[in-house]
Amino acid sequence: MSNGISSSNTSVSGFKHDLNALQKLTSYVPEVKKQLCLHTATLRVMLGANPSRTNLLLKQTSARTSTQQHKSVTQALAYKMAARHLPSALHSRPDSQQYLLSEAAKTYELCGNTKAALNCRQMVNRSSLRGGSSNSSSTAALSS
């Protein structure tokens, strides 16, 4: 599965190393667990892994976050990743990509991140112009 993201062996190796370190930290700092699902999902996107499991990790990301501000930022990023990198077959409704990006924009705005909110709104507009929820042509790198 090609997702348009080029990832060198060095960057994937480094990301895996960081993910392993994050996993080790979870026994000492329980709050780190909240980021583990999101970073694992990011690695899966980088590798083009099975999108069903990636979708599950993104859903868990939203559910596991406790503080409101942190939850909002994490949830917005999970929405954005799901909209941009998961196949439309996994979405529950035809306009899911636009809906998820709109929710991400609202959430970023509530957190005060107007740049990320604007970025999400621009993606919604481009998606609407393309005529649907196809996300296969999205090749931009993740940004927040």
From TrEMBL:
Subcellular location: Nucleus
Alphabetical keyword list: DNA-binding, Nucleus, Transcription, Transcription regulation
Keyword Nucleus: yes
Statement: the UniProt record of this protein carries the keyword Nucleus: yes
GO MF, one annotated term: RNA polymerase II cis-regulatory region sequence-specific DNA binding
Major subcellular site: nucleus
Any Gene Ontology CC annotation: nucleus
PANTHER family registered for this protein in UniProt: LP12374P, STEROL REGULATORY ELEMENT-BINDING PROTEIN
Name used for this protein in its record: SREBF2
Biological source species: Bugula neritina
